[in-house]
Input
Amino acid sequence: MPSQQVAIDRVFHALGDPTRRSIVEKLSSGPISVSRLAKPLEITLAAVVQHLRVLEESGLVRTEKIGRVRTCRIEPRGLTLAERWISERRSLWERRLDRLGQFLVEEDEGRS
Output
């Protein structure tokens, strides 16, 4: 499987979990420490760290340890990858629907 496909699979796998989507949404507001990120979530700190690992491996999140504090931030390149994949599919379907629309117009004109 090409590396681009593996990367896309990882992004969508990571975003497929509601807790991880919640983490990404929270990080969209700016960098935050792991402990502050974990507070509103109703899961253990260890579980948050596991979710962050998946998000890091997918390229959606980056963490950095300064002293005793691990800070997380969104990594826009991961979201760009998903956006590009979705955009390509949308473009494909728009072209197909345009051709279908043109075909239906021509069919209707042919009956008149």
Observations:
- The helical segments are 3-15, 18-27, 34-38, 45-58, 76-111.
- The beta strands are 32-33, 61-66, 69-74.
- The chain has one domain: 3-83.
- The chain is about 70% helix and 10% strand.
